[in-house]
Amino acid sequence: MKNVILGIFGAFAIMFATPAMAQGVDVGELQDMAEDVVGTQCFGALKDAVQAHVGPKYQAMRGACAQFRGCKKTCRSAKKDAKADARADKKDCKAECKGKKGKAKRDCNKSCRQDFRADKKDARAAKRDCKADCRAAYLQGPCKSARKEFWKEIANTVKDNAGQCAQDIQALING
Questions:
Q1: pTM here?
Q2: Is 154 helix (H, G, I), strand (E, B) or coil?
Q3: pLDDT tens for residues 113-153?
Q4: What residues does each domain of the chain span?
């Protein structure tokens, strides 16, 4: 929840930092202004709006998308497992090359390297494919609509408080 508030505040800070920089305000003054903004009506209104409206939407989104997040965790292990298999295959291949000599050994080592490169590429693809499968399976219906509602609520909160925040920040810049 704190990250959501900081994200909204960060969006406002970026919107109004550029004009402040253009007016020749240095970084120390901007930090002081940011501390002053935390005490303004704007920040209080944003905090209240986030707690009242965005917080419940965030919790609903987390609940609706729990399976999607769980699936993405398994994708991380899919890549690790595929890489471990590739290393094991490379080790076995190198062991097969041990008794050979000359050109046969060079060719064997070359084929081991090429196979290992292909296996590493497949490991990356395994994670990508797993994530695509997760999206197809779990990023549907309730999860998708909950995410949409969450971002819509954030946009409405920012839109509703933009005027007051612009005035407060402009007063601090001019102040």
A1: 0.53
A2: helix
A3: 898 888 888 888 888 888 899 889 888 888 889 888 888 88
A4: 1-65+156-175, 66-138
